[in-house]
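User: Show me an example of a complex going from sequences to structure tokens.

Assistant: Sure. Here are the input components:
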Amino acid sequence: MKNNEFDAIVVGTGISGGWAAKELTEKGLKTLVLERGRMIEHITDYPTAYLDPWDMDHGGQPTKEDIKRQYKQHRTGYTTDRAHSHFFVDDLEHPYNEDKRFDWMRGYHVGGRSLMWGRQSYRLSEMDFEANAKDGYGVDWPLRYKDIKPWYDYVEQYIGVSGENLGLKQLPDGKFLKPMELNCVEEVLKSSLKTSYTNRLLTIGRTAHITEGTKEGLGRVNCQFRNRCMRGCPYGAYFSSNSSTLPAADKTGNMTLMPNSIVHEIIFDEQSQRATGVRVIDTETKEQYEYKARIIFLCASTVASTSILMQSRSARFPNGMGNDSGELGHNIMDHHLGVGASGSTENFRNKYYIGRRPNGFYIPRFRNIDNASKVDQFLRGYGYQGGGSRSNWSDQIAELQYGAGFNEAILEPGGWSIGMTGFGEFLPYHENRMYLDYEKTDKWGLPTVTFDAEFKENEYKMREDMKNQAAEMLEVAGFKNVSTFNNVGGPGLGIHEMGTARMGKDPSTSVLNKFNQVHSVKNVFVTDGSFMTSSGCQNPSLTYMAFTARAANFAVEELKKMNL
Amino acid sequence: MDRREALKKMGLSFGVIIASPILFNSCTKESQTYFFSELELQLISDTADVIIPGTDKLPKASDVGVAQYIDHYILDIVDNDEQSRIKSFTKRYLSVINPQKPIEFWVEHTFLSPEVETDNWLKEIDNFGNNDSDTDATLSDSAAVYTLLTNLKSLMIRAYRGSEFVGEQILAYDPVPGRQVGCVDIQQATGGRIWSL
């Protein structure tokens, strides 16, 4: 065993780990950043960034053999494309178990899912923080929008988010860069919503892309509209840990970044009732190490951080660190999606677009936001994300069938279509959980994760409305051939898994306090999705960034006051 | 009858279910085949040239390796059941080619026959496999060739459009647009062609 001591340890390098590393090192803390996966250097480790479809076999479509190794990752239908499949785990090497279907999509490498994320960035609103208290599901959030607002401001301005302020109470305004443009058919839907409904509107997606100026990091410049984001962006145009927060942390000279290091346990000192460090396995040599620090930030992602707490068993915490409430691993949430509608139009045949916009439109929540919008069928609400485009199938193909005319026709675009899918809130249910299986271990001898979670009545009823309202809005706007879809999939498919170490006011019903501190182990902070007390219907990464920055600054203050 | 459903039922849905504009690699390897025999590959290639014959300005299917692409694609991507049907129908197609009924005849027969006739083939396909005694031979030549060519055609289009030559030289190719405009005249954007990427 070799011992190394630091001021702080950050576990994980994704959205939240990168932010913790940046904030802690910039405040002068010598920080060890541990990542279970391999090193990914910004730009040089994006091997597919410049490949055209013809540069890859089958245009990048995964082969049968590829899918065998990523059979669970393949459930999204897009993660296993060869353009970015190397950023998602090999399911044979990294197994998990499903009492009920759960789609756990993830990558093990420096940067984590900040490399492959959807980049949609929305704030939670006051009504989201009040929701649990009002309808009684889950426990009350221990803070309100005003507590996190300055931190949303701070992270948005640092990462760069393009979008449009709307003045909505259900979707707070932010500090936005120039919005991207809607296309011809999206403008039609926008106008129609404005004239046909009182509380529905369409806006361009708020996305973590630079659309004007530059941002700090490794040469972060304007989006080039290549839409190859998931491969890693050589322009650093969208926010990732690799291009933004980790370089910032590195610049301070206070960061020690160690890839290939699986943290599996936090060491607890019974005498001081504090965490003293972490136990780590080197993924390649399988050697074990211990590292010590005054504070520990768990940012390993919801399931992994929860798993580490569960494995941190001691006389004081026989059921996992911080688990006095018995809620650790419970209340797992995601967003439910894959439900909506699409349609087409014969108009705008002489119109097209320029640039491959890495973004779509957004229709903010309009259900249950006030008395007038209250519905009886379900609690809470949903937003829609969608887009319009011209198909690559000319209508002439059907008539011409084959020959020279056909040859010409297959090079011309077809008609316009438009579609949207709902992103719905998933209530916190105690019985929806993950737990560890110590019988089935992985190649490092660590227990595997088992999921036991499902959507319930509120989600299913909401989905009916998501489907019907999408179709209605398209029809009202004059689109033709409107058809609906409702593919529920498994929880997890939204890749927003969260809630398994929730925040709360009461240590007997929650794991963390309002500063993301473990109630009973004050020098351990958990700032990834596991802290979420409710899910809202907004894409959550921006919220993880804001809470991480807030928690890190709080931790530094507490250290100064000698409270930790 | 829903053609897509009927063809899907045959397990020959590989070309038609891809919703996004996935583009393909034209991998032109000399005298090496992946899935088809050399003779079968020649047949697919010649058929592709009847369907996508080129013009004075456009390459024909074989100029950009469409058949080679399909050959590799079927081996790597199409599942085993579908593969065996493709193999069986390709053999059937090969066996019905003769001087009186050359490739051109079967392409025309498949794509230009009146709908009453194609509907009958679809019914045949739809019923096929419902009896234990059904074998591929139970299916008429017309229905088998129709199934094969209809499916291969969509793959041919994608292979053609996704080849490097068509993708870079024929379609509107802009690897780094650098800007985004939401709604613009198509002539100004691409001169009327599809965006390559």
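The lines above are the inputs; the final block is the predicted structure for all two components together. The radius of gyration of chain A is 24 Å.
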